[in-house]
Amino acid sequence: MSDVITITALIYTDSDAADRALREVAMTLMERGFRLAGLVQHNTARPGRSRCDMILEELASGELIGISQDRGPLARGCALDVGQLLGAMQIVRAALDTGPDVVILNKFGKTEAEGAGFRPLIAEAIEAGLPLLIAVPWRNIESWRLFCGTMAREIDLDQLTVDGASLSDALGLDLRSDETREPAIQPLLAISTRH
Fold first, then answer.
1. How far is CA 33 from CA 25, 80, 98, 128, in A?
2. What is the pairing mode between strands 53-58 and 36-44?
3. How far apart are CA 85 and CA 87, in angstroms?
4. Three-state SS for 87?
């Protein structure tokens, strides 16, 4: 395990903005030759439905994985298909073994706040000393802090310019395109701004 744990939590109130930000960072890093592992989320509205379809994109392979249960047109509340989420996690777990430069996980959501979900992947990335970027909604900030303690720095998404390069720079990712770059996320700091 690395002596420096490199976790950055992107704290947000707007989940669509957080999803876009993570996709932008992932695209920018891939364009610069970084090898990624992890998941970013795409939401697709369905006519006549109160909830959108949630689709995860696995970054190492580009595979798309639907994680929504179809509970009918009037369904409310969480529609997460936990079985599909677990399947996506297995794909990411295998990608961690390939030695990615950066791991991106779309959310420390309700499932993680309750003690399940991506928690094992977060632990594996830490164990391997891999830089990790994860989005954390303000409503789950206390659970996040209980989970990771002071190991992560927090950045408020509302305080950042949201385009891939600017966001990558703000997160401290080295975007040099030469072969000798060592991708890193700045040392851990608690620089969160509460709303």
1. 12, 32, 15, 20
2. antiparallel
3. 5
4. helix
CB 60 within 8 A of CB 37: yes
Instruction: Give residue for tokens 């030759």.
Output: 33
Nearest to 85 by CA among 109, 69, 67: 67
Q: Which segments of the chain are extended strands (E)?
A: 7-12, 36-44, 53-58, 64-66, 102-105, 132-137, 152-156
Q: Give residue 68's identity as a one-letter amino acid code.
A: S
pLDDT in tens, 12-40: 999 999 999 999 889 988 988 899 999 99
Of 101, 126, 105, nearest in space to 10 by CA = 105
Q: CA 122 to CA 118: how far, in whole Å?
A: 6
Distance CA 184, CA 39 (A): 19
CATH superfamily, domain at 7-170: P-loop containing nucleotide triphosphate hydrolases (3.40.50.300)
Q: How much is the pTM?
A: 0.79
Contact yes or no for 175/32 (Cβ under 8 A): yes
Report CA torsion sign: 151, 133, 78, 91.
negative
* 139 within 8 A of 167, measured Cβ to Cβ: no
| pLDDT averaged over every residue in the chain | 78
Percent share of the chain, pLDDT over 70: 71
Domain positions in the chain are 7-170
